[in-house]
Design goal:
This protein is α+β, with helices and mostly antiparallel strands. It is built from four helices and 28 strands. It is 15% helix and 36% strand. It is elongated and about 100 Å long.
């Protein structure tokens, strides 16, 4: 939520806008509570006013919320989380604040500009300004010769010039002290991980986020600056242990600490989906991980999300002679590298996967957008049972078609978040739903009221 900063003596700014964290909680009747502002710091890690405090991710039990505090400069973001207390209030907890200032450098007080900078013409009297503006108009009429430009100093008194210079000296003296503060700030920043804005996932125990850190194997640039590399940091907020995995960016985090991430695929030059298992320090195949959860679903991935990919590659056609030649790679997984957020409904961790259409793939290949996959093979709707034993059988066919083995009074289809996306009465033996490919919950109701409810993959 945006709100004005209160007037603050230490900053001298009373018109700044900041972002503060606000939550709404869903009540048992399905309605949402009035907004509740979470506690937020009055100062950032440097001792100045922060730009914002944001709530970004919530644990599945709704008792812990992860966020970031963006500092006064906007370059660094401090990891934090809130914990629900016994009285239903929230407590804000800093996550390993020493990471932001590893050498524990003391920041000097940031000096304020009490004398706003004023231009020399602001010291003019009305008559002086009128005389100057008339000279300026004449200069324009005479052809705007640069050498004849009327100087403000020629139309004010020596006393006015002295007053202007005295104010400018005071302003510049404070500016010099501010530059010293900036020097300290950027020196400390160089020694710390730089946390990426909003790239945070949280399951109540592990705070996983993108950050940039110094590359220990890199070569300093021409200015002597150490190179950096992108990593995912995994911070256990219970024991403050930290691990990092380089070369990937975070998308989501499951309740059992599996990180879903994106990694550049050097073969097809696009982001691809990978996972990092809890005890691993490098990524592994997202497809293999999904297949380990359900071999049948792994087969579906191979049939529907993997295609031939034709591209140009450099090939040595003779000793020392290289040419670009066309090469077709088989069975390439177009996962798009974006498994989205890990939404938790009951015990099901749901992963949204985007798949981009590549210009030189088979034009007849389907384009997959916005799929939702349950990683623990449960639907987002808990306790799916039939009210009576039913003889109706439901089969999902490609293209969004539902096949029934008998007569039914009604057919209803919901997505994995429980939203009804299709329904009809007296469905045909094969009913075209028009739904996009994906995973759905299908309920067929027979004439006797019995129901068959299945999870279907189109």
């Amino acid at each position: 939520m945006r709100q004005p900063c209160p007037k603050d003596e230490a900053e001298g700014e009373d018109d700044r806008i900041t972002y503060v964290p606000v939550i709404w909680e869903r009540k048992p009747d399905g309605k949402f509570s009035s907004p509740k502002t979470l506690p937020y710091p009055a100062r950032d890690w440097t001792g100045r006013l922060p730009q914002s405090t944001r709530a970004l991710a919530v644990s599945s039990d709704n008792n812990r919320i992860a966020g970031q505090v963006t500092d006064c400069m906007g370059y660094q973001r401090q990891p934090i989380y809130w914990e629900r207390q016994a009285d239903d209030s929230w407590k804000m907890i800093e996550i390993m604040p020493q990471m932001l200032n590893p050498k524990n450098v003391t920041f000097p007080a940031f000096p304020l500009q009490t004398n706003p900078y004023k231009l020399l013409e602001e010291y003019m009297t009305p008559s002086q300004r009128a005389e100057y503006e008339a000279a300026l108009e004449k200069w324009k009429e005479d052809g705007s010769v640069a050498a004849d430009y009327p100087e403000v100093a020629d139309y004010v008194t020596k006393e006015q010039i002295d007053e202007f210079q005295a104010n400018a000296d005071k302003y510049n003296a404070v500016l010099e002290e501010q530059y010293k503060w900036y020097d300290v700030y950027f020196a400390v920043l160089a020694d710390a991980p730089s946390f990426v804005q909003n790239a945070v996932c949280f399951n109540g125990k592990t705070y996983a986020c993108d950050a940039n850190v110094t590359d220990p194997n890199g070569t300093p640039d021409e200015n002597g600056e150490d190179p950096t590399m992108g990593v995912i940091l995994r911070i256990n907020v219970n024991d403050n242990t930290v691990s990092q995995v380089p070369g990937i960016t975070i998308n989501s985090l499951t309740n059992d600490d599996v990180v879903l991430a994106s990694q550049v695929d050097d073969q097809i030059l696009m982001m691809n989906s990978v996972v990092v298992l809890p005890e691993a320090d490098e990524p592994s195949s997202w497809r293999d991980w999904m297949t380990s959860l359900n071999p049948e679903f792994g087969t579906w991935i191979g049939q529907n999300m993997c295609h031939d990919y034709t591209t140009m590659v450099d090939k040595e056609v003779a000793p020392g002679q290289w040419e670009q030649v066309e090469e077709t790679m088989k069975d390439v997984l177009f996962s798009g590298g974006d498994p989205g957020g890990a939404f938790t409904t009951g015990s099901a961790n749901l992963i949204v996967v985007r798949v981009d259409q590549i210009w030189n793939t088979d034009p007849d290949s389907p384009v997959y957008m916005g799929y939702v996959f349950p990683t623990d093979l449960q639907s987002g709707i808990e306790d799916v049972t039939a009210s009576k034993k039913s003889t109706l059988k439901v089969e999902a066919l490609r293209g969004g078609v539902v096949r029934l083995n008998g007569d039914a009074d009604a057919l209803q289809i919901a997505d994995l978040q429980g939203r009804v996306v299709f329904e009809t009465e007296s469905p045909a033996a094969e009913t075209a739903t028009g739904l996009n490919n994906g995973i759905y919950i299908v309920k067929a109701t027979a004439a006797d009221g019995s129901e068959t409810i299945v999870k279907a993959i189109f």
